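Lecture notes, structural biology module. Today: joint structure prediction for complexes of three components.
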Amino acid sequence: MADKKIMTTMHEKDMQKVTVTQKITKVIVQFLLYAFLCTMALIIVFPFYWMIISSLKSTVEYRLPIPTLFPQEIMWGNYIEAFTAANLGKLFMNTVYVGVVSTILSLVITVLSAFAFARLEFKGKNALFAALLATMMIPGELFTITNYVTVTKFGWLDSYTVLIVPFLVSVFYIYLLRQNFLQIPNELYLAAKVDGTTDLKYLWKVMIPLSLPNLISITILKMMGAWNSYVWPRLVTSTDDYRLITNGLRDAFTDMSGQANIPVQMAAVTVVSIPLFLVFIFLRKYIMKGVSRSGIKG
Amino acid sequence: MKKFLQKIRFEEWKAWIYLAPAVALLLVFTVWPIINTLRMAFWEDYSIMKELGGTLGNEFGIKNFEKVIKYQGFIDCLKNTMLLTVLTVPISTILALVIAVCLNAIKPFQRFLQTIFFLPYVTNSIAIGMVFEAMFNIVGFGTNNPSFGIINNILGVFGADPINWINAGSGYWQNIAVLVIYIVWNALPFKILILLGGLQSVNKQYYDAAKIDSTPRLRVFTKITVPLLSPMIAYVVITGFIGGFKEYSSIVGIFGDDMQAVGGESLNTMVGYIYDALGNQEGRASAAALILFAIIFVVTMINMYVSKKKTHY
Amino acid sequence: MKKRIISLLLVLSMIFIATAMVSCNGGEGAGEGNTGKVAYEVPAEGYDGSAVTITFYHSMGQKLQDVLNTYIPEFNKLYPNITVEHSSMGNYDGVRDQIKTALTAGNQPNIAYCYPDHVALYNVAKAVVPLDSFIESTIPVTDATGTESVLGFTAEQIADFIPGYYQEGAAFDEAGTMYTLPMSKSTEALYYNKTFFEKNGLSLPTTWEEMGKLCEQIKAIDPDCVPLGYDSEANWFITMCEQYGSDYTSLNEDEHFLFDNETNRGFVKTFREWYQKGYVTTEEIYGSYTSGLFTATEGQKCYMVIGSTGGASYQQPPQVDGNPLFETAMATPPQVNPAAPKVISQGPSVCIFKDTNPQEVVASWLFVKFLTTNVEFQASFSMASGYAPVIKSVQSNPVYQQWLDAANGYTNLTAMSVKLALAQSDAYFVSPAFNGSSEARDQVGTLMQDALVSTDADIDATIKKLFEKAVAECEYAAD
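The predicted structure, tokenised, for the full assembly:
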């Protein structure tokens, strides 16, 4: 009994000693942590700073051999020109439309496939899943030409269909969601089956709510995809009726020799980036959760 | 027993219904292009324009592959791709790991800093490529009073001589260094995202235990953090390798369509070669794409094998 | 086993579909005329007045599209049933890539902006309409205003084209089949700082020899400067070949790439010495447009630039406190033989694509004819773009003349550059265009850059190696 008491007091003294040195190290370590993180953050942020100041420069200043770190004369006019030169309003609506429709359809297809892979048993399941994953390794550039010929034969050029359908299935999203579904205990499913709950109802009532963060991240990634896609829409559309925002960005500010008016382009890029930044800041939690979950069982 | 079998059959039937939309779309927009790629790769001297003009021969074989492999330019592309991958994957993974661990260890401003580190996720690659070019550029290179980009100015503060990173006559390794920095910058957000997510889901008990034992930080890092994070690290490394072998736009972003500094060695990559050949030699492009696929496949298999042996769950 | 059979069946069916999808592309009735030129079967009735929609792919910016949009209604006054749709593909390469892909699906536009290299590529697919049959056609056409004319060009119309520009359309085969018509053209000019030249009593160089001496002189006056900036290395190399009369490329299929020869190695070596002495820089080497050096207000300067007449506005002197810093003037670039000057011809032409509906082809021809021969359109387009018009009669248009007369070396260099481009019109040359000619252009540009900056001791060996490498790359690409 006494022995034990002595041991405890000794231990406490030790602890106190450690705490003092620990406190000092902790302060130093915290300082170093912040110094390191802030330096890295500056490096990360610099290009954005550059984008914004470039959007406020005149063409002449942008072309100066010694780049200026702050515009000599702030050209808000670039932003006005960005709005008037590119048909940004119409392109914006197109992008939103394509983004929303393709996200909804894509979610349905992804959920159904992920469910089949995660919960149902069928012959060749593993082989099929492996084959799907293997397609992720093929450079996508090679698909473009063949797909273009296909959609032309289907008569889909210059339509919303052509912007939406070819990219509805993403192996990556199926994979992501399947991992998520697998984490939901199978017992729940079996119990639901015993109760006579249909698959779809189970999906709707249990699986979907439980994997909501992942579904939200897929939504965001898909919307971002619509926002950033460039090569395909340029290839399959020829009028502003169906073009997407990035096409407007690249095409509207070129002169006869095909050289871009970069400051105005940067202004447009900045404007177009703002919604993405906002979405990102407000929904960061979901993006993080979704993507990191997929990593857990990588 | 019979009932059980029936049930299995029903489930199978159901599974295919669920998969039908995905499989149908994949057949048209993924499988068919792959088959078409095979067709073009094994058709000697295949080019779409020739086929349209009716001047294409009718011989099949591996001539396209031979031409690609024997071409010195392709070998250089292969070398560059390998080099960039081998350099950038470890660097970006380690850096992302360090940043993630640091982020996880602070309280004030954590959310703010997290947001900043994720920013590159939402950028326009052309714009950022141009920025990196401007940062390393020396305008008026080879003249009496050139103006140095911000990087050389920073080096100057530390008393270092300006380095010719990307301009005329710059060396291969300087070029590679710039590319590595750009690619790592680009790759960081995704990796930090995943590693930080992993860290936050790690059970605090392990750390509390280490605290009581007053284990040194470095030891905590190597003995607890890294093993616990190993599945995430494996994931990041595998996707990093796949991305690395598909590297292309970063080189265009900095060095332009020429894919090299003036007077320098070519920095072209495998995907760059495929793009070039797509101009008018789809047969060779397809052959090169298949070669690239084979390489990525083998490397991924090796990666998975190694990570299975090394990951701790 | 069953699984294997199923997957085998699947693969087989896909291959079947593959062959089915591939083998459906119809050709057009094309044959050889008695001159060796490729002919096209023009419908006997000419344009039958039917309603057709034709598409035009180009790389015009908004300003030029506005000009085009004002003139399409003018065209429709003549042919109300022809609907013209047009869209910009951003830049020349964008037009080429788009059309190449569109051709694979039989979905090509009717008319496109083109460079000779592009047409050579489309010709592999035999997709471009040879124009001689149209040009020579005497089929009568009556437009909506009741005016009667012929489908083809009249002798006066052909004579109105600036010959150098018109000839470019015939650079595709040895018989000289016309595949393109010029739309809007530019060339290279020597821009110089007139104020600096006058102050120091310098005279304009007409030969390369004089240019070398002049650079030495300028270097003595301002040791920090680079006297000359040359914007395009490839243009430089190709122009030198033409000026020396040495081989560059040929249409002969067995020996397309002839540029590895004594003369060419010689001028590359000379210009390398210039670069090493600090006489000259290029856009790629300098790392930015050389116009930046030319218009610099402080620090390093250059006093001469050889660049496109289309980029004249960038060579305008900067304003300091509301006053231009100097006066820019323009001249023909230096020559090997000033008595027979040679300058490169650039800028877009237009070509017409074959189509299953011959009426679309005829309608396209009528529109192309309108664009290239309508004086008002050519004048407006030139004023908006800073490129030269392709027909001579534009110069007697009063509005255009007024615009040209307003040219000055301080604020209106664009008009001055068009003037010079027109004045140089006898000196234009074009290089042969074939499948692989764009590779040759890229390779000689790279070769020129690499040679200039090389500091190897045995420079002859290095230059030899660079030439060999460039030829090898060209041959691999064309093989």
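Point to remember: The interface with chain B takes residues 11, 14-15, 17-18, 22, 25, 27, 100, 103-104, 121-127, 223-224, 226, 275, 278, 281, 284-288, 292-293, 299-300, 435, 446, 449-450, 452-455, 473, 476-477, 479 of chain C (CB under 8 Å).
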